[in-house]
Amino acid sequence: MKRTTPSDQTVLVTGGAGFVGSHLVDALAPDNDVRVLDDLSSGDPTKVDDRATVIEGDVRDPDAVREAMAGADLVFHEAALVSVEQSVENPQESHAVTTGGTLTVLDAARDEDARVVLASSAAVYGHPESVPVQESDRKTPTSPYGIDKLAADQYARRFSELYGLETVALRYFNIYGPRQNPEYSAVVSVFEDQALAGDPITVEGDGSQTRDFVHVDDVVQANLLAAETDRVGEAFNVGTGESVTIRELAETVRDVAGSDSDIVHTDPRPGDIDHSEADVSKARQQLGYEPTVSLRDGLESLLDRN
Ligand code: NAD
Question: pTM higher than 0.90 for the full model?
């Protein structure tokens, strides 16, 4: 098992002006030639390390992808239509960006013989039969977003078998950390803003639903390991292996923020998943992944920044 971080490589980060992508660029820019391909639909180029080159372009555009990937050794494919709600409103666009964009990236990577580390999602599992969820568990995604992530995840892995392309799919659970895009159900940043403002913290439903919140630093760690592993053609869960209820999350955020906000309950979100927790033993054993940031520490460092 190798444990080194990529160095002296030409690296493309699609969606590199976004939340996860910009943190990946931070980790890679000191020792690699890093390019970002981002259509800036939600990404912010001012958040990208100055050493990286930002190319404004769409992952649906084969010419833009080929040009951005010329000479690349390694691709981290983060760009997607990330909002579940938007995917429900516009499944065609979700499919075009998330599945179609991934195919375009995989095809271009074949030409360059570049490894692709794909941002997949816990959404591929839908309502899990039991938790913690293992990679081989049933996949019944409940939204176009989840369906498109599942297709992208499968394409990446089949490209490894069919064409010998080195790919790794990372199924991220609920990520939080600095620079998170607050637009789509980023519950941690919503609670944080409410607690700091002294506004009521709004828990959807009874708050007994559980989630596995993983800090973005650990997601970066998993990506760097995936860049070096010999376990290609595989998918790995990326979470912490622990979960909290949303009610507990609200209480912890309130506590860490030193806030006296009330916690109030609103209508449950239709179709919300009851329980989600990653089994990370495959990533531990095969990638050498080890989650390092506890939820309390992660929330404290997030709130310290304000
Ligand atoms: P983000 O919205 O912060 O970043 C996505 C980036 O992709 C943005 O900069 C956006 O401008 C860019 N983008 C969108 N459409 C594009 C297109 N057509 N062409 C080029 N660029 C495009 O989201 P994030 O939270 O950083 O998510 C990164 C990846 O991780 C996504 O694939 C997402 O589906 C996946 N993921 C995220 C989470 C999470 O909790 N944040 C969980 C599971 C999976």
Answer: yes
Best of 20, 76, 214 for a ligand 1 pocket test (most atoms within 8 Å of beta carbon): 20
Ligand 1: residue of 54, 58, 67, 78 to mutate (most ligand atoms within 8 A of CB) is 78
Total count of domains within the chain: 1
The protein residue whose alpha carbon is closest to atom 19 in ligand 1 is 58
In a domain, 19, yes or no: yes
Q: What is the DSSP string of 71-135?
A: T-SEEEE--S---HHHHHH-HHHHIIIIIIHHHHHHHHHHHHT-EEEEEEEGGGGBS-SSSSBPT
- Binned at pLDDT 50, 70 and 90, residue 102 comes out as very high
Q: Whose CA is nearest to atom 34 of ligand 1?
A: 82
Q: Is residue 159 part of a domain?
A: yes
Could you list the residue range(s) of the whole structural domain that residue 287 is in?
A: 10-175+214-239+279-292
What is the domain-level CATH number for residue 123?
3.40.50.720
Report if residue 250 sits inside a domain.
no
